[in-house]
Protein 1
Amino acid sequence: MDFTLIVVLVIALALVFDFTNGFHDTANAMATPIATGAMRPKVAVGLAAVLNLVGAFLSTEVAKTVSGGIIREGDGGVQITPEIIFAGLIGAIVWNLITWLRGLPSSSSHALFGGLIGAAIIGIGFHSVDYNVVLAKVILPALIAPLTVGVVAFIATRLAYFITRRDTGRADGRGGFRYAQIFSSSLVALSHGTNDAQKTMGVITLTLIAGGVQSVGSGPQLWVIVVCALAIAIGTYTGGWRIIRTMGRGLTDVKPAQGFAAETSTAATILASSQLGFALSTTQVASGSVIGSGLGRRGATVRWGMAGQIALGWVLTLPASAIMGAFAAGFALLGPVGIVIDLLLGSLVVALLFRRAQRSRISHDNLHDIDDAGRVVKIRKTPRKIARRDRKRVAL
Amino acid sequence: MIDWAAFVVVAGASLLGSVVVVSLYSLGLRLLTSAGRALVVDPQSFTGAITILTPKRAAKEAKRARKTASANPLTVVQKRLALVGAYSCFVLCVGAALYGVYLIVPALHR
C-alpha cells in the first residue's frame, strides 16, 4: 500500500471522528435550552452548528502533541505511525457510535485518547504510554470535574431562585431566564467548537508530519482547519437527538432559571479549565451541571439508577475505546491487508449500528414520543403549605 | 506530577464566574419585576420536559405580570431607579459574556 494512501485514509477517518464528535456533543450546549423552550430544537441545533463552525476558526493554536503528552511521541520517544493513528481513530469512532446508540453522554475526547492509547500499546508497546499523564490529565479530571461543576451549578441554581423569589400570586419574571439561556448555551457551543475541532486538526497535522507531507513543528494548514470546522459543524447539525433526549428530558425537567445556571456553570468551567491548560471533557461537565442544577431546585431527589448508568458510560469509555483501538492496531500491524480488514470491520460495525438506530429512529419530530430513560433528578411539586407561608413575605 | 492546585483554581474560577453572572442576571430580572415590568417569556416549543402551556395559562401568566405591575408599592423614582439597576445588571452580564469570548480567542489576548 502506498504510504500517502494511508495518510489520506487517516485524514478521512479523522474527519469522520470529527463528525461523530459534533454529532455526539450537540446536546451539551443545546439540551437545556430545548428542554425549557428557550429555543426551538431546529433553531438551537442550527445555532450550535454555526457556533461550532465559527469556534473552530477562532483559535488555531494546536497543542504540540495531540494527545497532550499521553503518548511519548517526538524527540527521544516512540515513533507514532499513521497506522497507529488510524487504528486509534477506528476505536474512537466505533465507541462514539455505540454510546450514541445507547443514548449515553460519553466523552468524545476520552474516546479519542482511549483509542490512541490502545493502539499505541499494541502497536508499539506498554512503554509508549505515559501513565502518569493519563492519571493526571484524563482519569482524575474525569472524576473531579463532574462533581465540582455539579456543586457550582447547585449553588448557582439556588442563588437564581433565591434572588428572583416573590410572594405568590405575583409574577417572578423567571421566564426571562429564557433570553439569557440563548446566550449562555451559545457560549458553551462556541467553546466546544474551539476545543474539540482542535483535537481533529491536531490528529490530521500529526499524521501529515508523520507521513512526511508537512514539516515538523508547523501548525495546521488552512484546508485542514476548514474541513475540520465543516465536519464538526455538519455533525453538530445532523445529530444528537438521542442524547438531547437523555440530557434535556431523561435527566431532569429543566426550568429556565435552572437551565441558565447549568449552562453558565458549564461555560465557566470549560473556559476556566482551557484557560489554565487543563483538558476537560465538555460532555462530563455538561452532564454534571445538569444534575447539580436539578438538585438545586426545591423538592429534588436523585434517581441513582440513571446517574449510575451515566457514570458507567464515563468509566467505560477509556478502556472500551482502548480495547477497540488495540484490536484495530493488531490488524493494522499486518500491513495493507490488515488496514483493509480494519476498514471493512469498522464499516460493518458502523452499518450494523446505523441499522439498529433506524429501527428506533428518533428525530426532532417524534422527540417527545419516546420515554424510556429514567431521570436522575426527581422534582416534587411545591407543596401548597410552603406557598401560603411565602405569601406573607414582603418582597422588594 | 498531579497538579492539585490547578484543580482548585479551576473549581474556584468557575464558581466565581457562575455565581457572578447568575447573580447579576437574576438581580436584573428581580429589579425589572420591581420596576413593574416583569418579563413574560413563553416557551418556544413544547418538549417533554416542559409543562404544556395552554393559551389560557399563558393569559393567566400575563395577567399576573400586569397585577404585579399595578400593585407596586414603589414610587415613580424608585421604579425608575430599579429599571436603571436592572439594565446595568444586564449590561454587566453582557460584559461577562464578552469576556468569555475574549478568553476563547487566543488571538485577542496574546
Protein 2
Amino acid sequence: MRSFFSRLLRRPRPRHNLATDIPAQEVLSFLSQVSLPQKSADVVQAIEEVLGNSNDLITREIKISGTSLSIAYINGLVDKKLVKVLLESLLLKRPLVEQAGLSLDANIDRWHQMGLPLGQIKVVKNLSEVITGLLNGNTCLVGDGWSQALLADTEGWEKRAITEPQTSTVVRGPREGFVENMRTNTALIRRRLRHPNLRVEELVVGDISNTSVSILYLEGIANSKIVAEVRERIKRIKIDGVLEGHYVESMIEDNPYSPFPQVWTTERPDTVAADLLEGRVAILTDGTPFALTVPLRFAALLQSPEDYYQRWSLSLYLRPFRYLGLGITAFLPALYVAITTYHQEMLPTPLLISILMQRERVPYPAVVEALVMQITFEILLEAGARLPRALGQAIGIVGALVIGDAAVRAGLVSPAMVIVISATAIASFTFPSFDLTNTVRLIRIPMILLAAVLGLFGLFSGLIVMMIHLVNLRSFGIPYLQGMAPFSLSDQKDYLMRAPWWKMRTRPELSSKKDIIRQAPDQGPKPPGDERGRGPSSMENQAPKKKDNQQVFKTKVKRTDRQANRKGQQEGKK
Amino acid sequence: MRRSLLVLLSLLQIALLLCLSGCWDRREINELAVISALGVDKEDDIWKITAEVFQPTTGGGEDGSAGGGGGSSKRQVWIAQGRDYTILGALREMALKVPRRVYAAHTSAILIGEEVARQGILEFLDLWERDSEARINTEILACRGKAEEIIIGSQGGLEKSVGLELSGLKRFAPVNGHSTILSVHEFIAFLGQKGADPFTGVVELRTVPSISTAGGGKSSGSTAQALRLKGLALFRDDKLMGFADPTESRGILAIQGKIASTILHVQATVDENQKDNTVALEVNKLKKQIKIEENEGQPIIKIKITAEMGLAEQAYHGDLMQADDIRFLERQAATVISNEVEKAIQLTKNLGLDPCGFGEIMRRQKPKLWEQLEKNWPEGLRDIDVSLDSQARVRYSALTGLPPIEKR
C-alpha cells in the first residue's frame, strides 16, 4: 500500500501490481485514500496505472502558456460530441490566454464555475472518485497545480431504444417499456409522476460491477418505514456484481425459500407509477429493463395493467377467469389423478365409461401418464425458450403431432390426459405475472404426487400446507394475502374484482397510511345539477376518519420493526 | 440450524410418504369392472347375482359376449354371475370369473327377480343402503320372472347397457304417468313408515323387430328383446304382494302425486255414432288433497284431485275450444280420473296394501285414530270409506290455430 503512494511520488521502489496486491473488491476503497498529485501528467499516469493501461482509456495533454492540462475518458462510454465541445472550449481559450501572456488559471473553482460548456461538472479530490467517474462515462480534466480534478458528464454510450415491453403487452395502454439504462427508466417514471415528492435515491451495489440501484417512492404517500427498510436491505447487500434486478430481488426477499415471488417485477413504467401512487416503493437496477416494486401482495400477481385501462365491467368479468386459471393450472392434473384413481364414484357414469374406454389401451397408471405428459410439456417449453426463433415453429409442430396425436394413437397416453395437460398449460399463461406462472410450475408436480399417494385427501393436504405458507408469508412486513387475510373491506374494491375508478377513493391499506385518499368523493355519474364531489376542495373536506387509519398504521409498523430486528439478529449470528 | 433440520425432516417426511404406495384404495380406472345393472335372484336359499358390466371397447360394433340378438344397437356389456349364501359372497364369487375389480358404485339399476321379491329383499336393501361402495340413488325395479333373464335377454336397446337404458326410463317415464321407478333410497323410505307400502316399476321384455346391419344386408324377420316398463309392483314392507296394471298404476301414482304429465282420452261429442270421436287431453298439473275425517269413530278418507290440462290432439274436426265443449271435456276427464283412482283403491283394498300412503296421512292428521288402526294396517284399509272428488280444468289448447277444416 505504502509503495504505491511512493511510486506516485516518484520515489524509485519495486514495481507493484495493484491488481494482485490488493483484493479486487477493496481497490476502490484503497484508492479513495489516494489524493491527487499536483502535476496533471502524474494524475494521468496514475489513472493509466490503475486501469492497467487499458486500450480504451484515451488521454490527451494540452499545453497552454507552458502549463499542461490533461483530459482523460474511456472510449465508448462517452458521447464524442460532448468531448469535442469540451476540447473546443479549451482550445479556444488557448490563444486568448497566450496573447494576454497570462498563465493558466490554477484556481479550479473558477474553472468549475464558468470555464466549461457542459451541464454537470463535479470537483473531485481523490483517485477513487476520478476512476469511478471515468467508468461512468465522465471525462476527467486535470490541470497542473490543481491537485483536484474536474469530472464533466459526457456520458453517452450505445443504448437500446425504448420499445414495447415484451413480457406484458396490452391492447389498450401505453406501449413504453423500460430499457437497460437506468437514467432513461427514472425519466420514464418521472414523466408520469410530475410531482416534487417523487424521490429517486441512488445506491451503488456490487463491489466490482458498481451497479447503480435506485429507490423510487413518493414522499408522504409511501410508508416511510418501508422505504427505510428497503434502503436498509439494499445497503446490506455485499456482492461482487449485480447483472440483473433479480440479484437484488433475491437478496431483499422476506422468505427466500418460498416458491412465491415477494417482489413484483414489471417492464412497464406505467405499472411502476401506479404502484408508487399506491404507496409502494420501486427499485430500479442499472442494466435491467425490469423494475421491482415492494411490498407485493398476492392479488397483484393476478392483476394486469390493462385491468385499469379498460372499462371496469370487463376487468370485473375477466379477473375471475385468472383465478380459475390459477386453480386449473395448479390443481387440475392432480385432481384428475385423484379422481380417476381413488374417487371414481365422483364421476358421472357416462364420463366414467368414456374415460374407462380411453384408458383401456394405456398400460401405465394415471400418475405415470400425468407425470410423463407434464415432464414432456416442461421439456417442450424449455426447448421452445432456448431454440432460435426460426426453429420455434418446428417444435410446435413436433409437440402438437407427437404429443397430441401420435402418443394417443400409440396408446401411451389417453386423450383425456392430453386435454387435462393442455388445459393446464394454457391456463398457466393467463396470469399477467410470469413469476406466478413459474411458481405454479413448481407446485404442480408435487401436487400430482400427493394426489397419487393419498387421493383427494393428499391434494387437500397440499392445498392446506400451501395456504398456511401463503398466510405466513410477508413482503416487507406486509402480509402477502393482505386484503383477504387480514381481511380488509376497503381493499376488496381492487382484489378479486375491480371497482370503477371513481369508486377507488382510498389507497390500499397498510402499504400507505399517511395519505390514503386518492380522489374526491362522489365522482360517479349523477344527474345534472348535483354538485357533490365537483368542488375543488371537497377532497380535503371529506377525508374520512384519518385518526383510525393512523392507529392501524402504528400497529402494522411495529410488525415491520420486529421483522427488521429479527433480520438483523440473523445477520448478527452469521 | 433449527430451520435446516426442519427442512430436512419435512423432506424426509415427503420421501417416506412416497414410499407409502400401499395405498389400498388406489384402483386405476381401467382395472375396474363397472357394473351397470344388477339382477338379484334366489334359488333355494342361494343368492344368484347377475352383473351387467361395461365392456370397455374403444370403438362400437364389437360384440359383447352376451350379445347374440341383433338389436338396432349393440350393447357394450359383459355378463358376470355369482352365487353364494349371501349377496356379498355372490359378488365376491364373481372375482373368480372377472379379471377386474367388480365396482358397484356406478350401478344404475337393480332388478329384483319375482321369486326373491316375494320372499323379501330386506337383506339386499340393507346391504345396499349401508355398504360404503353402493349408492342409494340406484334404481330398484321388479320384474315378472327372473331378473337374470331380463338382463341377459334384453339385447335390443338404444343405450349401451340395460342400466343406462333404465336410468333413461326413470327420467322420462313420469311423462307417461303409467309407471315410475323408485330409487333404493326412496324405497327404503317407505320401509320406515308403517302407514305406507312401497311400490316400484315393473320391467319386462318385449319383442322388437331387429334390424341387423351385421354381415352387410338387412336380415328381415329376426327379432330381439328389449325392455319395457309396465305398471307397478306392490310390496308390503320388503315382500312383493302383487302387480298393478298400467291403469291402476296411474290411479296410485295420481294419489301419490307422482305424475308429471299424462294423456287422458275422452269423447269429443255425446253423439255415440260419430266416428273418430276421441280427444287427447294432456294433463300438466295434477294436485291431490287428502283429508281424513272422522265420523263416529270411523275414519273417512276424502281425496280431492284437481287436474289442469290442455287439449292436445283431436280426431273430431271441429273447434273444441268453445265454452260448452270445454265443460263437456272437463266433465269426462274428471270421470276418467275418478274411475282410475277408484280402480286403484279397489285393487289396493283387495290386496290389503296401502301404496297410496293413507295410513301415513292418517298418522299426521288424526294421530289418535291412527293409534287404534295401526295394529291392523293395511288390512284395515278395506273397511274404510274413501270418497273421491275429481275436478278437471281444460285451461288451453295445446294446439295452435284452428283445425284445418274449420278454416274453410
